[in-house]
Specification:
The complex is a heterodimer of chains A (81) and B (223).
Chain A (H helix, E strand, L loop, with lengths): L5 H4 L3 H5 L5 H13 L1 H19 L7 H18 L1
Helix pairs in contact in A: 3-4
Chain B lengths: L7 H12 L3 H20 L5 H18 L9 H21 L43 E3 L2 E3 L4 H11 L2 H12 L4 H8 L3 H23 L10
Antiparallel strand pairs in B: 1-2
Helix pairs in contact in B: 1-2, 2-3, 2-4, 2-6, 3-4, 5-8, 6-8
Classes of the chains: A mainly alpha (81), B mainly alpha (223).
The complex binds zinc ion.
Chain lengths: 81, 223
């Protein structure tokens, strides 16, 4: 199996992180990042990106949508109690 | 990372709360699961407004069914299954009237890092970086490595830029903390397509962060 180029490696990063590579492909990936500072930084940037996405606060339910849901709940409760 | 489930005991309390017509129990569930439900629904339909209707319809179905809910699966699994079915049905109905192109663009091909970043075929190292990506100014907070507070805006506008399916997958995985199987079930995706959408979405966010920090190579640029 030939070695990966950097251009190929960047497209395998998610498969690598999701553990979707075959053992041989995984070894080939790790062999490359161990020797290539550019791809090592790239993989690190993806990990940082994931962590930064995780730091975004998920938005709340819109207040008017919430009010409509609670009104629907009260209607259901009154009908079925 | 958002709360993505409740403990079994509190879930049992919530089920009995709903059966007792306790509005506070219902409000707790709406607040806890609502944003995730909205995003999952948005992965099937074309607008936020329609996704909101899907969530509303889901809760109505949940209330109608709660007295017969047997607890063979968790409440959360049951609610999210109803959501997935409701959203799927609505999405199919919608696509009869709305051209596919408005939902497409999610599995489009093409590299996630521009070909101009790599050396060409004539080079000694074809496919190698022309200039290495630069290290980012990462600080450490507690045990986590973090970028400055200002990148929150960069990350959220990059997220807003993503095609709907990519945005749904990235948000459900990386903000809501769901696992791959759960996202596949919610959005009706194969494992492979889930990974493609996640890959493209994360890569776009990374490249916006790179634009923010500049791509000057710390390792020495080719002159
Ligand atoms: Zn490389």
């Amino acid at each position: 199996m030939s070695e990966l180029t950097c251009e190929q490696l960047v497209e395998l990063v998610t498969d690598y992180l999701e553990e979707a590579l075959t053992p041989e492909a995984r070894r080939r990936f790790e062999r490359h990042t161990a020797l290539c500072p550019g791809c090592d930084v790239y993989l690190d940037q993806i990990r940082i990106t994931i962590a930064e996405l995780g730091r975004l606060t998920p938005e709340r339910v819109a207040p008017d949508a919430r009010d409509r849901l609670l009104a629907a709940f009260r209607g259901w409760a009154a009908e079925t109690r | 990372m958002a709360e993505s489930g409740t403990t079994p005991s509190s879930e049992a309390d919530l089920v009995s709360g709903l059966r007792a017509r306790d509005e506070a129990a219902f409000a707790t569930l709406v607040d806890q699961w609502g944003p995730t439900m909205q995003r999952a629904a948005r992965g099937h339909v074309s607008t936020d407004a329609v996704a909101e209707e899907v969530v509303q319809d889901t809760w109505v179905a949940v209330l109608r069914g709660i007295d017969r809910f047997e607890g063979r699966s968790s409440l959360r699994t049951w609610v999210f299954r109803i959501l997935a079915n409701t959203a799927k049905t609505r999405g199919i109905r919608e696509r009869r009237t709305i051209p596919m192109s408005s939902l497409a663009g999610s599995l489009d091909a093409g590299p996630t890092v521009g070909a101009d970043r790599f050396r060409g075929d004539g080079d000694e190292h074809p496919g190698g970086w022309k200039r290495f990506p630069a290290d980012w100014p990462v600080g450490v907070t507690g045990e986590h490595r973090v970028l400055g507070e200002e990148v929150g805006g960069v990350v959220s506008s990059a997220l807003a830029e993503l095609p709907a399916r990519q945005r749904s997958v990235v948000t459900l995985r990386d903000l809501d903390g769901l696992d791959a199987d759960e996202v596949c079930a919610l959005l009706g995706l194969s494992a492979g397509n889930q990974r493609v959408l996640l890959h493209r979405g994360r890569a776009l966010v990374r490249s916006r962060l790179e634009d923010h920090f500049g791509d000057a190579a710390r390792w020495g640029a080719t002159p």
